[in-house]
Every structure is written in C-alpha cells, then in structure tokens.
Write a structure and sequence with these properties.
110 residues; alpha+beta; Arc Repressor Mutant, subunit A; three-stranded antiparallel β-sheet; 9% strand
Length: 110
C-alpha cells in the first residue's frame, strides 16, 4: 500500500475582499475612531445608537461594528460649535436671518 503525498497549500485561500465600508471593527477600534473609551462604545450599543454584530454565543459575546455604521453615527451626531450671531440693533432683521440661513447650510445648529 503506497502513501499518498501530503497536499500542501501553495496559495492562500481565495477570500472575497470586503468593500471598505463593510469592514468590521472591534470595540477597541471603534473607541479609537471615536476618540472615546470602550465603555462609551458599549453604552452607545446598549442605548441603541450604534448597531453591532454579536460574535460568538454566551452571556457577553464580542461585538463587531460595521465601518459604515460608525461613519453614519459620526455624521448624524456631529456636534459643531455654533458661532455667535449677535442680535445687534444696528443690523437689520433681514441680514440676521440671512446669516443664520448661511450657517445652517454649513451644518451649524442655531
């Protein structure tokens, strides 16, 4: 009886590359991306503000976060410092409204 030669893997298995936006991030990576603690990331998850995919089973499974979800969270929760718009009586109301409109278009909350 002859032995068959052991097969060797000559090339890496073909794994379909994920699109960049579907890349999965760990809790630590998300915390670094958001410049916060991992505890804050968990709070966002449990508060329903940041969706995640549970990995594994058990009481406390690991979670992975889609890059696209993290980007959407950043976009939807962007806090921008609002510039001061004085209510100067020398500036007429029409000009004040024009300045406020321009600031809203730039993403400021007034």
């Amino acid at each position: 009886m002859t032995k068959k030669p052991a097969t060797t893997l000559t090339t890496a298995p073909q794994v379909a590359e994920q699109p960049e936006r579907d890349r999965m991030l760990t809790t630590k990576q998300v915390a670094e991306w958001l410049n916060c603690s991992t505890h804050s990331v968990h709070s966002l998850y449990f508060g329903g503000k940041l969706p995640a995919v549970p990995i594994g089973t058990g009481k406390n499974p690991h979670r992975r976060y889609r890059l696209s979800d993290v980007e959407a969270f950043i976009k939807n929760n962007r806090v921008v410092e609002t510039p001061f718009v004085p209510s100067d009586p020398r500036i007429d109301a029409a000009r004040q409204e024009q300045v406020k409109k321009e600031l809203r278009e730039r993403g400021y909350k007034i």
